[in-house]
Amino acid sequence: MKRKPKPFLIAAAVLLVTNIITLFLWLKPDASPGVGGISAGSEVVATVGGDSVTREDWLYTLEQKYGEQELRQLVNQKVIDKAAKKYNVSISDKEVDQEFDLIRSAYDSFDEEFTADEQTVKAQIRTDLLLEELLTKDVEISEEDMKNFYTQNEEMYSIPKMFNLKQIKVKDKSEAGQVIKELESGSSFDVLAMERSTDDGSANLGGDIGYVPAEGELLSPEAVKELESTKKGKWSQPVKTGSDYVIYLLKDTVKERQYSYKDVKDQIRRQLAMEQVETPLTPEAFWDEAEVEWFYGTEQ
Question: Which residues cross the membrane (predicted)?
């Protein structure tokens, strides 16, 4: 199994931050009325029998649970950006795209982290690569060591052919035919997935199952054959899978690719260099240098 590259291990936190920001914006005083006529911006945001939940209670709870994490995320981003400018460290768009592709190929299709918006994930990848570059900027790795590592781990830098898919799984051929009719009449694939699909994991995501390798256990040869003839943005004909039938929506196809040593040389250098760095892989390593002062005091 491929190693899941380290930079992406932090990316899920970005989703939580995004959700918190969205919620706080929704809670602004000028927010529109919510469910049941209760205004999200008013003093009372919910009632339970005769008891009220105030906006202040809600915001205080959110701040206690997520406030430090959210503020730390914002501070760390500024710290890394400031350090990168100071030491003239940069990460190219090509490196970010390449890391994204390699991570995407290593993650299972149902890993929740990869249901995130692509640009959000790439922004986190850029931050993580900048941090690695900063922490390893003074570490020297020989060309011979890097080439040997590539030769011994060449399979890590290969991307299999993959399909970016949504699915609707139903119990029988008749129901599958009904789903096709509703799609042809203009029904939303996402809505039908949520309403009809028997696969709870993907149904809640509008049928999204992410990037699935063409060769693997998740797609049968029949499904691959059907997807090969399906146009991007279109749905497939029902494919029998075990006792069920599946209709796929093909969002995109990723071609098979092998990255050369030259393509991944910088990534290998960082990886080998990180093994020699005693400083923990955290932005907090640069807090003193950046003279950070924050609401939660001096503790890091």
Answer: 7-27
Give how far Cα 66 sits from Cα of 15, 62, 63, 71, 191, Å. Answer: 12, 6, 5, 9, 31
Between CA 271 and CA 128 the distance in angstroms is 12
User: What confidence tens digit (pLDDT) does each residue in 207-236 have?
Assistant: 999 889 998 888 999 999 999 999 999 999
Instruction: Classify each residue of 145-155 as buried b or exposed e, where b means 16 or more C-beta atoms within 10 Å of its C-beta.
Output: ebeebbeeeee
End-to-end CA distance of the chain: 36
- DSSP 8-state assignment for residue 226: H
* Cα-based distances in Å from 253 to 229, 235, 249, 250: 12, 13, 11, 8
Distance CA 188, CA 85 (A): 46
41/50 Cα distance (integer angstroms): 20
- Which residue is associated with the tokens 């990886």? 271
**Which H helix or E strand runs over 259?**
none
